[in-house]
Amino acid sequence: MISVRAVLAGAGLSILVCGAAIAGCENAQTTAEMLECGNRSYKAADTELNAVYKEVLATLSPQGQRDLKSAQSAWITVRDKQCEAEAGVWEKGSFAPVARVNCLSTMTSRRVDDLKRLMPEG
Length: 122
Fold this sequence. Notes:
Elements: H1 4-19, H2 31-58, H3 62-88, H4 96-116
């Protein structure tokens, strides 16, 4: 069972890590502030994901493009289900949206790294 303290620590770490790039987020304390920072972090990660995805797609053969599109669709489903599960720890509490958006941000940033590894070197 995940403890509330572990989830809060994880969420706080996520916000602090993202806070380096998101102005004003290093001192987010209220749920509303954490949610705003999480949303800004997720939006930035999603923008980067879309750009990298298009860049990688352009380097692939037609079959590679189909494969990546299929993989990306499956990844989106898994990401969304995982983040709903993480938010579910909080059920209908006020922290649930923060947990969800921090999960979306973290998983999306990791996916960007995964896609960058598909880029041809050089």
